[in-house]
Amino acid sequence: MKVILRKIFYFLPFVFIALAMIMMVHLGISLKNKEIPSVFNRAILFVITPSMEDTIMEGDLIFIDTNEEEFFEGDIISFRRPDQQELIITHRIENIDPITGLITTKGDNNRESEEWEVDFSQEFIIGKYISKSGLLGSIYEVLFVNSINLLFVLITIVFLLIGVVEFKNIIKLLSKKKEAELEEEKIKLIEEYKEKLKEEMKDDEWKR
Fold this sequence. Notes:
Layout: H1 2-32, E1 38-39, E2 42-46, E3 61-65, E4 76-81, E5 84-96, E6 103-106, E7 125-133, H2 134-145, H3 151-207
Antiparallel strand pairs: 1-2, 2-3, 3-7, 4-5, 4-7, 5-6
């Protein structure tokens, strides 16, 4: 049982690293293709304008609950811009028409609502804002936005580290195997020598 637990703890960091790299690749590819990366009803978006500062900063990664269906005035939502649906906007709800349900939003840093965000249908909403991360936003910006393709460098380094660790483990295993073989050979030689001594003693007794 201890051996199994030791192996699990040994490989656990590599599993987390692999999952993190997969998530980062998924995020990068999705955002580059203007798709919305989503895992377990949580979407991840990169903020490219200061319209929601100081609540959400330009360059933040934000997390959106795509499973939310009920919205209220004051909620921050991400939605497809009605007149340019390839663009995704994250603004605060200013008003919800009680009869039609049409929504009007405004950026916290904007003086007034833009024409395209006044009285639009809830069908354009992607989800409700949950939280943000400036650190992850900075990492994403370095990897993708600035066109410095460090992702593959990081992947290469990770796999090189894994390769070095595995190589050391292989060397250790081979060394232990060699030691075991030498020990076995030694025991075999000792046994053969004992047998030879026994035979010689028998011959001496027979001669007497």
